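TODO from last week: model Mediator of RNA polymerase II transcription subunit 31.
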Amino acid sequence: MASSKETEMEPVASSSAKNVYKDPDDGRQRFLLELEFMQCLANPTYIHYLAQNRYFEDEAFIGYLKYLQYWQRPEYIKFIMYPHCLYFLELLQNVNFRNAMAHPGNKELAHRQQFFYWKNYRNNRLRHILPRALPEPVTEATPAAAPPPPPPPAVPSGLPAPPMGMPPAAAPSSTHSPMPYGMNPGRNEMRNVGMDRRKRKKDG
């Protein structure tokens, strides 16, 4: 009996294994479609379109939104170019948000807040996230060391010795001459010489 039951169960198991769906391209097309839909969720206008067309009233569609949460895993999140879609996917898990997005005013509000986030993201990151440079410690200015005084000029050892029989040269004196500047010395003496020459001509 046991052998007959086993033979009866084998075709059932084999038939269920044959019914398992397998993507012909190993899931590439499905991956691309789900990635495209996920990134469409970054647009509040698209979410407003889904709400107005009553997609959020379909339980199968709500289950699909829960299934798409696998995109938050590290091996999938690296393919997403618009990370706001992950934030809106989390909000779409809430029924109040799904109902609110059917109103045009809420769609405009979400779109405006998204724009302000993009506009100020870089400044906010630089201001609050990046580390600031520490202030430099204030140090008292120390006076620079004075350069050493220049060496005194070399003093000549002396004038060369005069030749034999010549008196030594007198050292230059720093005292001024008693004769004032501008006087023409020997002016009277030139007059006396001229008078002597005239007398000689007369006598001769």
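Done. The first helix runs from residue 2 to 18.
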